[in-house]
Amino acid sequence: MESKPRGTGAVAAGRVYEEFEPKMEWDRQLGVDTLRVLLPGFEKEQIKVQVSSSRVLRISGERQLSDNRWSCFLKEIPLSSNYNHKEISARYEKGILYVKHPKLIVPDDAELQENEQPPVESSTLDGKPPQEKAQQPTRMDKDKAAKGLVSGAQKLNMESYRKDFSGLVMDMTKPRKLVNLVLFFLSVVVLGMYARKAISWSFKKSEN
């Protein structure tokens, strides 16, 4: 974050100010970030912490080194938008200034646990979990499969036998129909010849 220190060697009311550059470090936590500012030699009353309406954290301080020599520092740090600037607090302890920055949006522990959980295996449409490994066929299954193949072959043989038998019957009935047809024509011819003879005989009898 940016900071704006004072210029060094400033003189005010007979005082000579020496600019002090404090060391700063952040402690990032789930719901709050803490800025630690190392200020060795400073007292609590010599430090000021302010937050402006423009969301700028201002930390300043000065202490006397000798008769007219003073050490001073000034840090202006823009606040991130995810911090609640109205709840920022500070405490000074053993030469370290702790400035807490509460966060506006804090993820719940439950949400963090859900994000850390491994993905659950997808279930089938009927709600049953998928089997990890395909089951090996047992001896009984093999016997059933073999019997199914045998019965299937027997059915195919029976079907082919029925077709062959029906074809043989058809072949046997064809000559019989042909013989009947020939006999029918022969009977018609014989009857025709007999009728012709009968007619000619009746004409001869009438002439006599």
Please explain how this structure is put together.
37% of the residues lie in helices and 27% in strands. It has 208 residues and is α+β, with helices and mostly antiparallel strands. Among the domains are: 10-105, Immunoglobulin-like (Sandwich); 143-174. The strands form 2 sheets. The chain has a 5-stranded mixed β-sheet, with no helix packed on it. The protein has a 4-stranded antiparallel β-sheet with strand order 3-4-9-8, with no helix packed on it. Strand 5 (47-51) and strand 6 form a beta hairpin. The chain is rod-shaped, with a radius of gyration of 58 Å. 7% of the residues are buried. Mean pLDDT is 75; it is low at 1-8 and 119-127. Residues 15-123 form the SHSP domain. Residues 110-146 are annotated as: Disordered. This is SHSP domain-containing protein. Its main location: membrane.
